């Protein structure tokens, strides 16, 4: 992965730490650092080194003093230039930090010359500019400074000798903020948070203390658990799916979840649960299967070190953070877990938890229906194709990054890349779906090249796994083929590139398309595919 | 102390410990430039939990110079 650094200070030591951290996570980065003091020229000069290369990520790292010297207007112009010059890259810019302690001391905020006030104003302007630019994202370095304290982050010797203002710890902390942001940009986030119950969601155990003695309320020590539930609820609202794995009697636990007056989280917030006396690794595996997600997208919280170690040893791909010992530290710990980072919230994110819950109702209906065909008809599935626009672009990019199973080629694209392809007359088709249980939102994306020599190439097709097995994949392919025909292609070519995870998609193309060699398939566009009868297309 | 210093130097200068000269210095090790000098200072400070005075930072350009400075700090 290629990363460019445009920086007002010597950032080599921050880069050292980033390389180390990303290497531990298995990715190698290749960093280009713009020459010292030339971050502006590198962007404005069309012949500069930076402009000649294609970077996945461009990091703009300017210290507070430099930002203040530039002023809000120049900073905004500069960011606009960066955004345009690197339109295919994700650009990360952190808010400005004044590296000296308040120089006016008590006078700060009391006079109009207050540099801290100026810095705050400039940071607001910086955020406003960034939000208006789709490929520019703010990294909240200020939050790290507040958490760790400036005096710990700064080394004045290094600032004076080498224009490298940060201490050894400072370099690590800044690198960590940037790495979290890079992961957020790549969409490599976990999907599901699985929690234990006793001594995690509430204090005490149902079995030993009884329901009445559980500690959970919004005051007293119960506040620690209430605050934790608030942090978990915030994750759920940001699109993280919640589930429960606990050793308890299901009936007792459900009673607390549904009826205890101190609880903030209720059973409706959880997409799945395994409350029984089975070992937790088996339960986690079942949850992954039920929700159709990979074990490596699950974060498991448990207060018991014994249970954590057991899950780690049996299911090494599940993410099992070591919880702090004191429940009062739970909230901050969970709120700062680095696995759920994201820059943009799509509509699908906001509704995801709810959608998994309705999925449970769908499954109940499936058990009740007398035949598969009855079930499918009773779902009243409606499909609609959408072209990329300002509202759905982030969701389209997200699907290319997050879909691993039903994904024909696993080619990933950023928002700006997708926009670029659409401008190059590619057909970018987003499939949205609803049924009698509600809106599923955009659940599939297909990318079709403009015809060349009479044939269009299906560059990629992906579908969210939740909707498989209802004929939607076949209907989607039929719609895509129809689009290729309307674009005056006489043939549509499609490719399947196997990965470790996309086995479910392996049999998809051969069912409808003719097999050629090397994983390629083809179908004439004048030979339409039939859309299953139980699906309506709007 | 020498062993710990050599280990840190090998790591920062990206050279196997066995390939380091007896008294590695800025003039005998090709990778040892001014950035490496600062990386060495930070890594040795972390390893020995000490803080070198600012006027020594660019002067300690050999293993023996680091050793002398460390001994002076521990007195």
As laid out across the biggest beta sheet of chain A, the strand order is 15-16-14-13-12-11-10-17
Sheet with most strands of chain A: 8 strands, mixed
What name goes with the CATH superfamily of the largest domain in chain A?
Gcn5-related N-acetyltransferase (GNAT)
Q: What structural class is derived from the secondary structure elements of chain A?
A: alpha/beta
Count of DSSP-assigned helices of chain A = 21
Average pLDDT of chain B works out at 93
Description:
- The complex is a heterodimer of chains A (about 550) and B (about 80).
- Chain A has helices at about 10-25, 40-45, 50, 65-85, 115-130, 140-150, 150-155, 155-160, 170-185, 205-210, 220-235, 250-260, 280-290, 305-315, 330-335, 345-370, 370-380, 395-400, 415-425, 470-485, 510; strands at about 1-5, 30-35, 55-60, 90-95, 135-140, 190-195, 240-245, 270-275, 300, 380-385, 425-435, 440-450, 455-465, 490-495, 515, 520-525, 535.
- Chain A has 21 helices and 17 strands.
- Chain A is globular.
- Chain B has one domain (about 1-75): ACP-like (Non-ribosomal Peptide Synthetase Peptidyl Carrier Protein, Chain A, Orthogonal Bundle).
- The model of chain B has no long low-confidence stretch (mean pLDDT about 95).
- In chain B, helix 1 packs across helix 2 (about 35-50).
- Chain B has helices spanning about 1-15, 35-50, 65-75.
- With about 80 residues, chain B is mainly alpha-helical.
Lay out the secondary structure.
The complex is a heterodimer of chains A (538) and B (75).
Chain A: E1 2-7, H1 12-24, E2 30-33, H2 39-44, H3 49-52, E3 57-61, H4 64-85, E4 90-94, H5 115-132, E5 136-139, H6 141-148, H7 150-153, H8 156-162, H9 168-186, E6 192-195, H10 206-209, H11 222-237, E7 241-247, H12 250-259, E8 270-276, H13 280-291, E9 298-301, H14 305-314, H15 330-335, H16 347-368, H17 372-379, E10 381-386, H18 393-402, H19 415-423, E11 427-435, E12 438-448, E13 455-463, H20 472-486, E14 491-495, H21 508-512, E15 514-515, E16 520-524, E17 535-537
Parallel strand pairs in A: 1-2, 1-3, 3-4, 4-5, 6-7, 6-9, 7-8, 10-17, 13-14
Antiparallel strand pairs in A: 10-11, 11-12, 12-13, 14-16, 15-16
Chain B: H1 2-13, H2 34-48, H3 63-74
Helix pairs in contact in B: 1-2
């Amino acid at each position: 992965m290629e990363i460019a650094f445009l920086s007002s200070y010597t950032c080599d030591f921050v880069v050292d730490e980033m390389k180390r951290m990303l290497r531990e996570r298995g990715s190698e980065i290749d960093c280009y650092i713009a020459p010292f003091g030339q971050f502006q020229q590198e962007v404005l000069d069309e012949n500069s080194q930076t402009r000649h290369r294609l970077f996945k990520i461009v990091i703009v790292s300017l210290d507070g003093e430099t930002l203040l010297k530039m002023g809000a207007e120049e900073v905004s112009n500069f960011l606009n230039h960066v955004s345009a010059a690197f339109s295919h890259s994700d650009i990360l810019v952190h808010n400005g930090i004044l590296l000296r302690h308040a120089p006016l001391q008590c006078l700060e905020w009391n006079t109009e010359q207050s540099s801290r006030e100026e810095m705050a104003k400039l940071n607001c302007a910086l955020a406003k500019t960034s939000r208006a630019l789709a490929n520019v994202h703010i990294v909240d370095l200020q939050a790290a400074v507040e958490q760790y304290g400036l005096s710990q982050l700064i080394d004045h010797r290094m600032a004076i000798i080498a224009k490298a203002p940060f201490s050894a710890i400072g370099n690590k902390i800044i690198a960590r903020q940037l790495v979290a942001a890079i992961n957020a940009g790549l969409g490599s986030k976990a999907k599901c948070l699985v929690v234990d119950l006793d001594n995690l969601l509430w204090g005490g155990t149902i079995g030993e203390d009884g329901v009445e003695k559980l500690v959970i309320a919004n005051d007293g020590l119960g506040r620690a658990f209430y605050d934790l539930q608030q942090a978990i609820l915030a994750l759920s609202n940001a699109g993280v799916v919640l589930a429960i794995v606990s050793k308890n009697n299901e009936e007792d636990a459900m009673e607390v979840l549904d009826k205890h007056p101190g609880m903030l989280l209720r059973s409706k917030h959880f997409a799945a649960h395994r409350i029984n006396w089975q070992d937790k690794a088996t339960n986690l595996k079942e949850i992954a299967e039920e929700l159709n997600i990979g074990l490596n997208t699950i974060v498991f919280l448990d207060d018991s070190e014994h249970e954590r170690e057991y899950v780690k040893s049996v299911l090494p791909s599940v993410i099992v953070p070591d919880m702090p010992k004191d429940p009062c530290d739970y909230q901050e710990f969970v709120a700062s877990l680095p696995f759920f980072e994201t820059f943009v919230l799509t509509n699908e994110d906001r509704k995801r938890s709810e959608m998994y819950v309705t999925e449970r109702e769908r499954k109940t209906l499936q058990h009740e229906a007398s035949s598969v065909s009855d079930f499918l008809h009773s779902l009243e599935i409606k499909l609609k194709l959408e072209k990329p626009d300002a509202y759905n672009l982030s969701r389209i990019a997200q699907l290319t990054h997050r879909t691993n199973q039903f994904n024909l080629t696993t080619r990933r694209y950023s928002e700006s890349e997708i926009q670029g392809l659409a401008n190059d007359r590619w057909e970018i088709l987003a499939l949205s779906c609803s049924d009698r249980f509600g809106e599923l939102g955009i659940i599939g994306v297909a990318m079709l090249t403009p015809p060349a020599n009479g044939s269009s190439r299906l560059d990629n097709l992906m579908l969210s796994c939740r909707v498989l097995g209802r004929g939607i994949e076949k209907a989607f392919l039929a719609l895509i083929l129809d689009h290729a025909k309307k674009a005056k292609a006489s043939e549509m070519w499609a490719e399947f590139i196997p990965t470790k995870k996309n086995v479910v998609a392996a049999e998809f193309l051969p069912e409808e398309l003719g097999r050629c060699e090397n994983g390629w398939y083809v179908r004439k566009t004048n030979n339409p595919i039939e859309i299953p009868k139980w699906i309506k297309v709007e | 102390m020498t062993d710990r210093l050599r280990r840190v130097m090998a790591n920062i200068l990206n050279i196997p410990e066995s390939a380091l000269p007896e008294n590695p210095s800025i003039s005998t090790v090709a990778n040892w430039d001014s950035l490496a000098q600062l990386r060495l200072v930070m890594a040795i400070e972390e390893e020995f939990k000490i803080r070198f005075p600012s006027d020594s930072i660019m002067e300690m350009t050999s293993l023996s110079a680091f050793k002398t400075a460390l001994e002076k700090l521990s007195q």
